[in-house]
Amino acid sequence: MSARIQSAAGILGLALLVLWAGEDLYRSSLLVTMLTYALIALGMYVPFVLAGSLSLSYSAYAATGGYAVAIGSAHAGWPLWLGMLVAPPVAAAIAVVLGAATIRLSGFYLGAVTLLFAEAFIQLLGNLDVTGGPSGIIGLPLLSFGGWEPSPFQVVLMATVLTGLLAFALDRLRRSPWGVVVRASREVPIAVDTAGVSVSLLNLVALGVGAAIASLGGALFTAYVGAVNPETFSVNVIFLAVFMPLIGGIGSPWGAVLGAVIVVDLTLNVDALSSSGTLLVSLSVLVILVLFPRGVLGFAGTLGRAGTALLTKRGVRA
Amino acid sequence: MTNPQLWIAVVENGCFFALLGLAFYFNLTGAGFFNFAIGAIAMASAFVGSWLVTEHGLSRPLAGLVGVLGAILIGAVMELAVVRPVQARGEGELSALVAVGASLFAIIQLCGLFLGHEARPGQPVWTTPPFSLGSARIGSTVVPLVAITAVLFTAAYLALQHTRLGRLTRAIGNDTEAARVLGLPINTARLLSFAAAGLIAALAGITFAGRSGVSPDNALHWTITGFLALVIGGTGTVWAPLLGGALLALANVFIPFYFGGDVLAYGLVVVALLFFAFRPEGVFAPRVRV
């Protein structure tokens, strides 16, 4: 499936989701959860899929976004949108500092230390007065822009546009010269280093960009529900964020968005699955890793190519 | 640090962490792979064993046997059905790491879905009556943990150093490609290393759960703890996880005692960062003849 078709299908899919949610508050909150996870998964896509660096601190970056919105509003009287603007640079700074401290690590070592960092960070949030301790911060005002308070539907629409734009931008970035170099650094780091491009610096930039995007997910969720606490960003968020691009397909950032939609639907929306949704997700990841390593999008592309080949063959015979 | 009861806790925790580290060591030696599902296998063995005893009235030895056999089976299935096909595609360690992460997550969810997420009392197969040693009280699981640790480490040392299968396992772990070229039975050795790791993890989990119970939430923490015990101890000798486990247990007992429980989480990050950054090969590094 070409990148253009994937982008077009992704935009169409998001538009259909907005229409499906409409003014229904349950569906809107479900869609916001999907978009939150999509943003976290898109954030993880940059270092994980592009740069091949498995940092597992993404619950911490999402929490940074959520708490930037909540603390800014509750303690400084900021409008929520200002917190959403502050969150990405703060999360990026944290990611770069952590990335610099773990610059020599990769694979299992990087995964373990970043997971420990995420757990410690969430624990820290539960211990500080400014974050409201274990109960967090509740009762945030509604999102407003200079006196204009968008309706829940308009908030969902804006969040959908933001997610779509970021997925589109990341897809362009993936195919840009910078994206090509980052992907090359994942496969042949020594060659890239030899060519005069610092792989360490590339990794730091990828980590910073990813953390900034993930923080928007936390900020969006907090702004929509008007509350945040440390439990919002548990370790499960990290696992699900890793699984989403794999389920949707690692060949394109749209796969991360598709993965988020599938995972949230399975775990929260399908009544028949109830509590087994998360189990189904993890088993799906195993099946996909073993049998369909390109995910749903990759499988759809394979089917599409097979169908095209079949039609072409018939056309030639006719 | 003069409180003897704290040192008993260090011994107990240290043995458990060391056993988890030993399970990691077996996987690393035999397959060149960190099996991040070790904590989940240990948890599942103890959790299922407890469920069989409390809900179905099975005797502890029988429930323990089911837990151990189940762990061996999980280890073998993971190698055959998950790790081997993913690694065979040659996509590097990242895909395999995600695969074992998904396995860990799946085991946690399976236990939670079918047996509940609430903590269960541990049902160790072997306990001793509590007794006092000076001013310290020795709980019912301390002696079994120390004994099992001593037996498993000694057995692991003898098996890896003095048997044909052990030498074969080490050869494959050191250089899989060279072993493949030489025609050594790589797949068999890998399968055995995963099964052995499952066995060790199960014995550790079942015995340690007798102290403070077990719940699916323990799995990830136990995985990280075992991994840290191996990384701190190093991979140069089979005894290395014992030292790593002991050092980790010292931190786990004394940091919360002197600085509060919250500081432990921050302390672990610092310890991991320092070791990974400056001594990733651990205290005991493999000696290479050049």
Distance between the termini of chain B: 44 Å
List low-confidence stretches of chain A: none
Global Rg of chain B: 19 Å
Low-confidence stretches of chain B: none
By helix and strand content of chain B, what is the structural category?
mainly alpha
Average pLDDT number of chain A:
90
Number of helices of chain A: 13
Estimate the strand proportion of chain B: under 5%
The 3D shape of chain A can be described as globular
Oligomeric grouping of the chains: heterodimer
Largest sheet of chain A: none
Total helical segments of chain B:
11
Give, in spatial order, the strands making up the sheet with the most strands of chain B: 1-2
Give the largest interface: A-B, 37 and 39 residues
The value of Rg of chain A in angstroms is: 20 Å
**Helicity range of the residues of chain A?**
over 70%
Q: How would a textbook summarize the main sheet of chain B? A: 2 strands, antiparallel
**What is the 3D form of chain B?**
globular
Order of helices and strands of chain B: HHHHEEHHHHHHH
